[in-house]
Write a structure and sequence with these properties.
The protein is of the alpha+beta class. Helix content is 27%, strand content 30%.
């Protein structure tokens, strides 16, 4: 889910119980929309410091830690993760999943 679209940035919210069951095509789709359709410069996500699994998934996907929000969640601080299109390796799969019209 996306929200907070500003024209240059959008926030992403997701849940993934087991990232091994998510296809590369799905990862391409969730990053293609904000970067190639909306043309945002930044994709942001927010994770609790208590949620180690989500932190690991975000880092694996290519997000980088940008900021720490003190006492943001009841169980800890909030970590703001950011990704730019230049840092998104999933966009390199475009030729595999999008066939340009001739």
């Amino acid at each position: 889910m996306y929200d907070g679209y500003t024209g240059s940035c959008i926030a992403s919210h997701s849940r993934c119980d087991d990232p091994r069951h998510v296809s590369r095509e799905f990862y391409f789709a969730i990053f293609n929309y904000p970067f190639n359709v909306l043309k945002v410069k930044q994709l942001k996500g927010l994770v609790s410091t208590a949620n180690l699994k989500a932190q690991k998934v975000n880092v694996h996907l290519g997000f980088k830690q940008e900021a720490l929000l003190k006492d943001y969640f009841p169980d800890g601080d909030g970590i703001v993760y950011t990704m730019s299109p230049e840092d998104c390796r999933w966009l390199k799969l475009k030729d595999r999943y999008i066939k340009e019209k001739v």
